[in-house]
Amino acid sequence: MPSTLVECVPNFSEGRNQAVVDEIIAAMKVDGVYLLDREMDADHNRCVITLVGDRTNIAEAAIRGVGKAAELIDLTKHTGAHPRMGASDVIPFIPIEGVTLEDCVAIAKYVGEEIWKRYQIPIYLYESAAQRPERTNLENIRRGQFEGIRDSIATDDARIPDFGERRVHPTAGATVVGARKFLVAYNVYLNTTDVEVAKKVGKAVRFSNGGLRFVKGMGISVRGLAQVSMNLTDTDQTPIARVYEYVKREAARYGVMPLSSEIVGLIPKKSLEDAAEWFLQIENFDSSLILENRLAAVMGGKMSVGGLRAGFEPFVEQLAAPVAAPGGGSASAAAGAMAAGLGSMVAGMSRGKKAYLQYEAPLSEAIGKLASLREEFKAAADADTAAYEEVVKAFRKLKTDPTAQTEVVTALKQATNVPLGVAQNAHLTISILESLRPITNPKMASDLTTGLALARAAREGALANVEINLADMQDAEFAGWVREKVAALK
């Protein structure tokens, strides 16, 4: 697998003709890109393809898929339950490993511009890539669907594309491209044919109408049944089990109930583990209690039979080796990751328990933030070592090439920015852990105390690394800016 992983989940307006979908998938076969899933829905007349690959090749795969869809799909003849505005309706890019959301925004912009250049399909950017606030939400862009956009794009300034001229492609329409976090497409079927009930429930559950945070919902008719169709944009903070229960409660107001539910595309394993904990109410549940998870950890070398030593020992031995990296910067990031991990554990052990139901929202928010911080700390542990190596390389070059001073400054800036980010994240982690004390089980106070000690060590160690790099910094303006940040943290 590539060292950088980006997920792309293009939605094409074809769910009935398998041969057409096969051709689109074939067009997207590019080295370094892997097909994870394909879903076709005849009622929606829509297919959802899930790809994963390195940042460069997955962009090309998406572009080629759009081109093939434009050849094969005619929106003037398209009907289906799901709203659509393009043969390639929406193309999101999602960071998985080694890339950030900002990286995916850059990919989305590149892909959007290329689609217009190659196929003359106008592009709208959404979610994190949106250039206008109102275009963050997909439904705002897609309002009126293909026919409405086709009729108004030339005269309505709100319809001006982000890339391309003010005209839709005659048969392929327009396409929305963007960057977002992982999303779960989740649908609940109700035991009624009355689509108006589904629309009312969809309106109640979506956040924009006062419903659940990180939920987008609408009601449609599928296979003769009313369906609440939803996108869950953060299942860590709004678990899928809570969404199901909310839909069930709202449906009961109209005398109906869920008949079944479905997931379109893929879902993180943790989301299903959370659902199991929610419905089964297992005391002190965590994912390591699942047999397959424990086997994977042991067989993968992350755990020894006697504990965690097999996974932890390599990093400790690398720190002990008589080489400069990994060093204090990586160790600070590792301490921050452990601090965030302990905080997640403490919050997770209280969330969902009867005694702490009143703190459900802040606990869920803390778990979501700490999960993100944990990933940033882990990435910083490697980034600190890489940044140090670039500094060494730049100074070596400077010995024989006086013009390499610019490279030295650039390398030192990166070597400063990494631990500065660790210090800032450690500072935030301290604040979150302190906020958990009054709303979590007091029997876990020692875990919070340990987490706080680790977070403070991470902050102190990272700031020490910042200072050591500033000692050689030739850019006075940058050094002044950094010292202001450091002073604020102290």
Would you kindly provide a written description of the structure presented here, covering whatever features stand out?
- The structure is a single chain.
- The model is unreliable at 301-310 (pLDDT under 50).
- The radius of gyration is 25 Å and the shape is globular.
- The longest helix is centred in the C-terminal third of the chain and has 41 residues, at 360-400.
- It has three domains: 5-179, Formiminotransferase, N-terminal subdomain (Formiminotransferase-cyclodeaminase, Chain B, domain 1); 184-268, Formiminotransferase, C-terminal subdomain (Alpha-Beta Plaits, 2-Layer Sandwich), CATH 3.30.70; 323-489, Four Helix Bundle (Hemerythrin (Met), subunit A).
- Helices cover 52% and strands 15% of the residues.
- It contains 15 helices and eleven strands.
- It has helices at 18-27, 55-72, 101-119, 138-142, 145-152, 195-205, 240-252, 269-280, 291-299, 309-320, 328-350, 360-400, 405-436, 445-470, 476-489; strands spanning 5-8, 11-12, 33-41, 46-53, 88-97, 123-127, 175-179, 184-190, 215-222, 225-232, 258-264.
- The strands form two sheets. Strands 1, 2, 3, 4, 5, 6 and 7 form a seven-stranded mixed sheet that branches. The protein has a four-stranded antiparallel sheet with strand order 9-10-8-11.
- The protein is α+β, with helices and mostly antiparallel strands.
